[in-house]
Amino acid sequence: MIGDLLKRLTEPTPEQLPDADARLALTALLVRVARSDGDYDAEERDRIGRIAETRYALAPEDARALRAEAEDLESQAPDTVRFTRAIKDAVPYEERMGVIEALWSVVLADGVRDPEEDSLLRLVSNLLGITDRDSALARQRVADGR
């Protein structure tokens, strides 16, 4: 399944993904950002699980399974630029904006804004077609708990 999803994501003109594949790709992006500082800790894994539970109305065990599959996809996915551009082409804008909020939630999960995570999130936001201003507003909403 992951190989098929990666193949579809890296086609020259990827089609919009079915919901289950979009969930997996977006969750893999959360994992990539969480891993970017070299410290993928339990707080970040838990946060990704809670995001999946809330965002996709999943039971905790289903969210854990999605996160585990996303970890596998992330480790096999191409470089961040190609992976993120493929997601942009395959996922509607509204979902991408929600992903930025989720990404900030993961970055802020451990209470530390790591420079590697900040840098990667700026890159990912731009690649997803989200402006720096909208990303900053998303960060503020997350930090304020809204």
Automatic annotation (TrEMBL):
- From the Swiss-Prot or TrEMBL record, give the protein name: Tellurite resistance protein TerB
Question: Which segments cross the bilayer?
Answer: none
Pfam families attached to this UniProt entry: TerB
Q: Which residues form the Co-chaperone DjlA N-terminal domain?
A: 23-140
Q: Which organism is it from?
A: Roseivivax jejudonensis
